Amino acid sequence: MAISCARFFRAASSLAIAAVLAIAATTASAGNWVGYMNVFQNASGTEGAYLFGSGWGVSDLATTVVTSNPGTINGDELVLRPNFNTYTDSLGGTNVDRAYWTNSSDGGATPGPLGNKWMNANTFVETANLAVPSYTLAGTVTSNSLNTSLYTAKAFIKVLDPNNGYSTELNDEVTLPASGPFVVTSNLSLYQGMLLQVGFSMNGLNANPADAVSYGSVGVSIVPEPSTYALLAFGGCAAAALRRRIRRANA
User: Fold this and answer.
1) Measured distance CA(148)–CA(229) in Å, rounded
2) Dihedral of CA 38/54/191/13: which sign?
3) Range of 133's domain?
4) Cα separations (Å) of 155 from 10, 30, 181, 230?
5) Residue 211 main-chain phi, psi, to 5 deg
6) 11 belongs to a structural domain
7) Helix (H) or strand (E) holding 64
8) Cα atoms found within 13 Å of the Cα of residue 235, Cβ hemisphere only
9) Does a structural domain hold residue 81?
10) What does the pLDDT look like over 178-202, one tens digit per residue?
């Protein structure tokens, strides 16, 4: 054990340091998932021209979150769904509201059966003053009934530049699979001091709540990034070494 741990210390030291940095990067906002919605024109059921973006409550995005380990996002479970509330708000709104948010055929006198704006709903945690060389978002899709002909769910790592109008400097993303693991890894060495965002997006038309069941949802569970496992093993070797020293002292 002594020999294997010694080898492990040498091999894993850099990974352990990386894990500490990665954990520190999430601590400031871990468990504090926030929402942001980007709204686009409906271009025949696809993303059209950008209209506006604003902060939204996570529940308003139709995302639910179960936090597992305070201080880190590891183990958190999320369920991502298409957005319904803009369609719902239009039901009691003016003709203009109904014509804007639904595909009304009579100028908004009655709402249309479908939504009429392309929604990019983002659920994420963020860290200001980025100071890590890389980041990995890894997890597992635990359930998936999403109608993928209409909606796309993605995992992403983004970097925004606060000194340049919060322009998007990096956007690494993967479409979530039907089931099983997913991973996004980003090299952040060029973006130190900027704003890091890590999370998930749901993309598609704002939905009629009557279609909630047929449109489905995606459930995800976040797992520690690979370097975190190295940190845990690193700690295990240290504990084993301490126990050996205690036994020798007692003898």
Assistant:
1) 33
2) negative
3) 30-225
4) 33, 16, 11, 23
5) -100, 10
6) no
7) strand 64-66
8) 8
9) yes
10) 999 999 999 999 999 999 999 999 9
